[in-house]
Design a protein that fits this description.
Chain lengths: 258, 304
């Protein structure tokens, strides 16, 4: 990686981990994983399923919230505080700044996910008494959640490159919600005909397919994850993030910062 | 006292007073009994709508609805209520959100089928639930077992019970008892041994303490029913031989029909009544018995 990108990424990471809100969110996600043990107690025969479902859902949702709320402020905060001018007055190109920010935020989320995952596995260990081969799909589900964060980070950065933080948060969250229902959207597209059908099909391809990353329930049932799905999802997340980051770079390059 | 210290003291007093008042208020709210009404409301009954609202986290939502079903059933059961109208919709939502979640089929059918207060008294709903479960989990022998069990206990349809056990016995992963149960159901459906075998299989194949306890209670009840039937046959035989009814168990012992005084699973001796019937000493201690009860009393169904 270009050293300037690495420098921006490292500083973004350092800035993000200093944010106390981040720790609160991680603590809350860990608390929910611990609470999953109690929820399992008031149900019957689903203790392990509840720990996996609730734990991974908490990791996913809190991670998305962290990605959105840090991602939307990455560019606007630098402009508001005027620190962006200091950075860009050095030999750092605008695209390097955007890409560095993306990697910094992604790194923050990977580290967050690591700690939240430890919480989920500890809760799982407490309930199941041991971890075995059957729990490997949980790792795959966590990997897909990280891929989901990659796309959310890229989208948050894309919107923040031209919009206010509040609007960026709204746009990103709306796309996350619609993307989580992309299976339904594809269903509608298949059923619709004519112009409507074409429009829905285009929408179904433009909207990020977050439902493909959600294998939480399958992993809770111990279903194996096909190698091809891992490959395709990885490729899809990388490609979609590249599209969003490229868009952010294009807009940011032309943005008047005066 | 400095002004800041005075403010701190006042704040502390206000805090403690508010805390105490909030506890009293909460008690007053609890006494209104609104909480139980809230629990008995199912706002969204459409699994499709819930699936969309869950943003793809259907597994978690199914776990939550299953927990709600368990809590609802437990609450109504503890209240000795005969109204379980939300149980079937809760189970339907749960299973449609996650058709592969097995406990709602296995245990839900046992909540739905028995007559109140032990269940919702809806064997048809239980049947629908199990059929839906089998449709989505064709490789699970437990579901065929539950289906056979339901046909046996609630519908007394031994042919269908046998067919269900037999279908479960054909699966690649199954229990060795399934084919035995299928055969017994076909030939000896009404016998005590058949029922005993079913409850024993239930006992063996569950990790749930409540289900194990229930199976033990049924096994004990079967023993009582069998003992009472056998003892009443002996009383009849004694009457045929001597022309009189025995006055006590000792008469049967002296005639060589029994050895010692027979006792129920709790160790309490059976009572020989003047009219020749056999009764247990305390029917409330043995659940689910259909025999050995005082005249006019139905099966003892006071506990789950």
């Amino acid at each position: 990686m270009n050293s300037r990108i690495a420098y921006v990424a490292f500083n973004t990471f350092r800035e993000a981990v200093r944010d106390r809100v981040l720790y609160n969110l991680i603590a809350f996600a860990l608390l929910i994983s611990a609470a999953a043990v109690l929820v399992g107690e008031i149900s019957i025969d689903v203790e392990k399923l509840v720990v996996i479902n609730l734990g991974l859902t908490a990791v996913s949702l809190f991670g998305v919230v962290i990605a959105i709320f840090i991602g939307i402020g990455l560019v606007s905060k630098e402009i508001d505080k005027k620190t962006l001018y200091t950075v860009l007055s050095r030999p750092v190109r605008r695209w390097e700044f955007v890409v560095g920010k993306f990697f910094g935020l992604t790194g923050t989320l990977v580290v967050n996910t690591f700690f939240m995952a430890i919480g989920v596995f500890l809760a799982l260990l407490y309930v199941a008494r041991h971890l075995g081969k059957a729990d490997l799909p949980v790792l795959a589900a966590l990997y897909f959640i990280v891929l989901e964060f990659l796309v959310v980070c890229a989208l948050a950065l894309f919107f923040s490159s031209f919009s206010t933080p509040i609007m960026s948060a709204l746009f990103t969250f709306a796309l996350f919600a619609v993307g989580s229902l992309s299976d339904e959207l594809r269903g509608f597209a298949r059923m619709a005909t004519g112009v409507q059908g074409v429009f829905l099909t285009v929408c179904a391809y433009v909207v990020p397919n977050f439902s493909a990353f959600n294998i939480i329930n399958q992993s809770a049932h111990g279903d194996g994850v096909p190698g091809r799905l891992i490959l395709y999802n990885t490729l899809y997340a990388l490609l979609y993030s590249t599209i969003a980051i490229s868009g952010a770079v294009l807009i940011f390059q032309r943005r008047n910062l005066k | 006292m400095t002004p800041s210290r005075r403010v701190s003291r006042i704040a502390m007093i206000v805090l403690l007073a508010s805390a105490a008042c909030s506890v009293v208020t909460l008690h007053a709210i609890d006494r209104l009994g609104l909480q139980s009404q809230a629990q008995q409301t199912l706002y969204v009954r459409s699994p499709k709508t819930l699936r969309r609202m869950s943003l793809g986290f259907t597994g978690l939502l199914a776990d939550i609805y299953w927990t709600r079903a368990v809590q609802y059933f437990g609450y109504q059961h503890n209240q000795r209520s005969e109204d379980f109208h939300l149980l079937a919709p809760l189970l339907q939502v749960t299973t449609e959100l996650d058709p592969r979640l097995l406990p709602p089929y296995e245990l839900g059918a046992n909540f739905l089928a028995p007559q109140p207060p032990n269940g919702a008294g809806s064997p048809d709903e239980a049947l629908r639930l199990l059929q839906y479960g089998i449709q989505h989990n064709r490789d699970q022998w437990h579901l065929y077992y539950e289906l056979g069990f339901l046909y046996f206990t609630e519908f007394k349809d031994y042919g269908k019970a046998s067919a269900a056990f037999w279908a479960g016995a054909q699966l690649p992963v199954t229990h060795e008892f399934m084919s035995v149960l299928a055969a017994r159901m076909a030939q000896h459906a009404g016998e005590f041994d058949t029922a005993r075998m079913l409850w024993y299989t239930t006992y063996q194949n569950t990790n749930q303490p409540d289900v194990k306890y229930n199976a033990v209670q049924h096994l004990a009840a079967l023993r009582v029913d069998e003992d009472v039937t056998h003892l009443e046959q002996l009383v009849d035989k004694y009457r045929q031989q001597t022309g009189n009814l025995p006055t006590s168990m000792s008469d049967l012992e002296r005639a060589g029909f029994i050895r010692g005084t027979p006792a129920d699973p709790n160790g309490k001796p059976y009572k020989l009544m003047p009219d020749g019937r056999i009764e247990v000493q305390d029917p409330s201690l043995i659940l689910y018995i259909t025999k050995g009860l005082p005249p006019g009393k139905g099966a003892s169904l006071t506990k789950p």
